[in-house]
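QA checklist item 7 of 12: single-chain prediction sanity check.
[x] sequence parsed
[x] length recorded as 276
[x] structure emitted
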Amino acid sequence: MNGLERLRQATRRDRVFQFLVDADELVPDTSHGVILYIEDLSVSFDGFKAIDNLNLYIRDGELRCIIGPNGAGKTTLMDIITGKTRPDRGSVYFGQNIDLLHFSEPEIAQIGIGRKFQKPTVFEQHTVFENLELAMAGNKRVWPTLFARLGAEQVERIDAILEQAGLIELKSSPAALLSHGQKQWLEIAMLVVQEPRLLLVDEPVAGMTHQEMDKTAELLNSLAGEHSVVVVEHDMDFVRSIAREVTVLHQGTVLAEGSMDEVQADPVVQQVYLGV
């Protein structure tokens, strides 16, 4: 595109610039079947390359697992996607049309990307139902929140999400009384009620019993399709139970991708990560 054509495009009356649109009004264009485009991404901290020319594509509605040794760049990647860290170079697009590097952390959450950290953060003094009520998408300024009243449709939606998370029978219980695994499910439910298109979930089964792991696998599998879900996890048995496709990171770049069987059979993955 030459300079004159760029000028014409920039001055079109029907063109809408991202900085003139509220973040919660943006809708990712997934007509090509991809929800997240990460290309040529690099970032360094004090000379250490945490992410090194990384390329990654997440399909709309898929459940993707990201694994790799400590220091592979998994957390830094999540930080960049959610706006906590700015890369030195590269691009991060939500759909084909939303350049995430132009937005702040709160704006990226409004656009439709939810993140769950390893340690669950819930409002322990409130009931399970009230936690979802507080998390529900909408105007979170103090005055509307204090005086808001849920309609029947909103109550039904919260109940449906609690049912999906296996917490419906505990809806009136204080969150402080939940087990570790139940608090993890509650926090996932708090993200889901905000209606994100993409969920980033960091080590969801750390510290869980085997029974809780099975329930977590069931929950994450049930979310895929309506949502795109990216799970960072170290427990290989758990990854195998949920993974359709696995991405292995090493030294800030993609080492391998494929099914769990394919990446486990990769001799380089065996050497640098699986210890075979």
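[x] summary fact logged: Strands lie at 34-45, 48-59, 63-67, 89-94, 98-99, 113-116, 198-202, 228-232, 245-250, 253-258.
[ ] second reviewer sign-off
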